[in-house]
Amino acid sequence: MLIVKNLKVSFGQIDAIKDVSFEVPEGKIVTLIGANGAGKTTTLRAVSGLDKSSGGSVIFKGKNITNMEAHQLVAMGISHVPEGRKIFPTLTVRENLDIAGWTIKDKTIVKHRIEEVFELLPRIKERINQLGGTLSGGEQQMLAVGRAIVTGGDILLLDEPSMGLAPVLVDEIFDKIVAINKRGTTILLVEQNASEALHIADYAYVLEVGYTTISGPAKEIAADPRVREAYLGV
Asked: What's the predicted TM-score (pTM) here?
């Protein structure tokens, strides 16, 4: 579904991504793991059109989408939940979800997707009239995921969904990611919690200082001595 080949992203004289390549097969969960500064977030932003690449290519469903605008990519079926959630704190949960469907002309589709969100994330339904800024960190993350469900798309890009959450909420968030995938959405996951990410993913890629260095089935990556020492603490 998604093929990223020899991607490079530069900010002035700084090469944030030097040579990143990976594939995301339809219906699978693929994770990018690596230390802070490895280029994971920049990679996601380049795929979704938020950062422009200076080399390489991004192919989505057979079409070259390299450096297309973000709003065009949303319409093509790419949804992105950014690092830090980026919900609207002064709007209610319901208003946050309604805005997520602004590009969809058929509002019955929006209504159906919001009902899906409430079914999958019942805690969000309980907070429907609360302002986004009054939600807990875990609830804000669930709202961010819920907005992506309303927007729709064939692939969901998730950037550090467990960041700043208590361990019990981390488990819950990852359970929800698996549930979304089982409903038919392909997942590209950037996550510093390598143990959790490798546990739910089908395939994994390790990024180091702007390069893809290790790749393969997630179970094999989790068993790799280099990964176990560097990212799993064993």
From this structure: 0.90
